[in-house]
Specification:
Layout lengths: L2 H38 L6 H21 L2 H9 L5 H19 L3 E3 L14 H25 L5 H17 L6 H34 L4 H28 L8 H27 L6 H6 L2 H36 L5 E3 L2 H29 L5 H21 L5 H33 L5 H13 L2 H14 L7 H15 L2 H29 L6
Antiparallel strand pairs: 1-2
Helix pairs in contact: 1-2, 1-12, 2-5, 2-11, 2-12, 3-4, 3-12, 3-13, 4-11, 4-12, 5-6, 5-11, 5-18, 6-18, 7-8, 7-13, 7-14, 8-9, 8-11, 8-13, 11-12, 11-13, 13-14, 14-16, 14-17
Length: 522
């Protein structure tokens, strides 16, 4: 066997062994959860059902960690503000902290009010419904992670509850008005996140990146951006991350955020001035100023996500535990400490074992992300949630973050495309036969940043040379510029996964409900 073949075989075996190790650790975690609950519920009616539910809850939590957490740290990793290992460590710690510290003591048993719990009076049917929803949501997330598509964990569990609910009580049980609002979030979330991220990116380009002295401009504008970030993250954390510990109105949270923002503005002016002396007066030097803010953003977004989305894993499990212990269906269920620990550890473990794939998808496979763009995505995530919550709009944090990545990518594409159009129009007006210069000029243009493009266009216009590009070539070149900046294959895969999440999860849940209902007893 050739050395090349041996190398390929070793690589394949290494990958396989790595996957076997991951599966082994996952299996040990789930079996440990199952065994712990069995010991605690020994001799209690419904104990085995609760143990199985706990293991599935742990499986759901792992899939949330593998898929959803990537949105918080992916852009920071893609911009190289954080290494993959550093991002995973920060996210795991803060996700678990958010779940345990601010995850809450009580959770709604019917996520988002999408079905009417009063239509199900039988606790056994309710347990089967929630178990089917939990398992279906976890399976769908597992599949989405496998194909590399970041999807909404909330939509996954919503689809599961809807499908199992219809299987248990018919179509009349569903709140179709609420489902319409959730469907609207498929458009609202990414569009709003994308527009806000693109707006901040355009602000940075116009005021900093296109200045002759970038670092001098950064001294004026970066502290303002950091103050806005401080306000948005403080308000976001107060409204979402700490709402179950210190409930605040929007006004109170905004005032708190404003006080912190003022402090951060004056503090960051000195920090930026000091940092600017250590960096070169170019794009990389300006981008380095956003490194520390991005690390804070990844940590805070992870904390808020852990506080909010742990309910997707432990909510149905808490509902099952409540139904078994109280022999009835409740609108609200207390969350036992062990249930919260299962959720927190599961999310952290799923991120550690399976998170890198989705982190790379969000951070590098959609469009090129530098630190200023990653900063805009993080800022858009917090501001979009604040705006949407005050307007009563249903949004998905996953869709917002990925929409933000799309937003900065499409902005770059739009600006580059406009520059290409200008160049081709100038080319039509020029005279001459310098064909070799055409190839060199287009190569320089294709590899240029936005500022350099403008300079090349001015040069072409001043020299009045004919570049000789026909209409067919212009269209081909324009499509190349587009494809380079935002990958169309990634858009198709992700948007398709978003659209089918609720119906696929619902279909899975309905099938699982019919399979397990005869076997559930308490």
């Amino acid at each position: 066997m050739s050395s090349k073949k041996l190398s390929e075989t070793d690589t394949a075996l290494g990958y396989a062994n790595n996957e076997i190790l991951k599966m082994g650790v996952s299996f040990v975690f789930l079996v440990s959860v199952l065994g712990y609950v069995l010991m605690q519920m020994q001799g209690i009616p419904g104990g085995f059902t609760l143990a199985i539910s706990a293991a599935i809850g742990g499986y759901m939590a792992m899939n949330i960690g593998a898929n959803d957490v990537a949105n918080n740290v992916g852009p920071a990793v893609g911009s190289k503000a954080l290494t993959l290992i550093g991002a995973i460590a920060i996210a795991a710690i803060f996700e678990a902290a958010g779940a345990l510290i601010a995850g809450g003591d009580v959770v709604s048993t019917i996520k988002k009010g999408i079905i009417d719990p009063s239509a199900i009076n039988d606790s056994t049917t309710f347990i089967a419904l929630m178990l089917a929803a939990l398992f279906a949501g976890a399976l769908w997330l597992n599949l989405a992670t496998f194909v590399g598509a970041p999807v909404s964990t909330t939509h996954s569990i919503v689809g599961g509850v809807l499908g199992a609910g219809i299987a248990a009580g018919g179509f009349a049980i569903a709140n179709w008005g609420q489902m319409s609002a959730i469907a609207a979030s498929w458009v609202i979330s990414p569009v709003l996140g994308g527009l806000i991220a693109a707006g901040f990116q355009l602000y940075i380009k116009r005021n900093i990146m296109h200045s002759e002295n970038m670092l001098q401009a950064a001294k004026s504008y970066v502290p303002v951006l950091l103050a806005i970030m401080a306000w948005s993250f403080s308000t976001y954390l107060a409204l979402k991350g700490l709402k179950k510990i210190f409930p605040m109105s929007f006004v109170d949270a905004s005032i708190l955020g404003a006080v912190i923002a003022i402090f951060v503005y004056f503090l960051s002016r000195k920090a930026v001035d000091k940092a600017s002396k250590k960096n070169k007066n170019n794009r990389d030097g300006v981008n380095n100023l956003f490194t520390i803010p991005l690390i804070f953003a990844a940590a805070l977004l992870s904390f808020a996500h852990g506080a909010n989305d742990v309910a997707n894993a432990v909510g149905p499990l808490a509902a099952i535990a409540d139904a078994i212990q109280n022999h009835g269906v409740s609108a609200k269920a207390a969350i036992p400490l062990w249930v919260m620990i299962v959720g927190a550890v599961g999310i952290a473990l799923g991120l550690l074992l399976f998170g890198p794939k989705l982190i790379r998808t969000v951070g590098t496979e959609i469009t090129d992300i530098d630190k200023s763009r990653a900063f805009c995505v993080a800022l858009a995530a917090s501001i979009t949630v604040i705006i949407a919550s005050q307007l009563g709009l249903p949004v998905s944090s996953t869709h917002i973050a990925v929409g933000g990545v799309f937003g900065v990518g499409f902005l770059r594409e739009y600006l580059r495309f406009n520059s290409a159009v200008k160049l081709h129009k100038i080319a039509e007006q020029h005279e001459g036969k310098e064909r070799q210069r055409l190839e060199k000029f287009l190569e320089d243009f294709q590899n240029a940043d936005l500022k350099e493009m403008e300079d090349l266009i001015k040069e072409a216009k001043a020299k009045k040379e004919k570049l000789g590009i026909n209409k067919k070539d212009r269209k081909r070149l324009k499509s190349v510029y587009k494809e380079q900046l935002v990958k169309r294959s990634a858009i198709k895969k992700i948007v398709t996964a978003w659209i089918v999440t609720v119906p696929c999860s619902a279909a899975l849940a309905a099938s699982i409900f019919f399979l397990i209902r005869p076997w559930i007893s308490v």
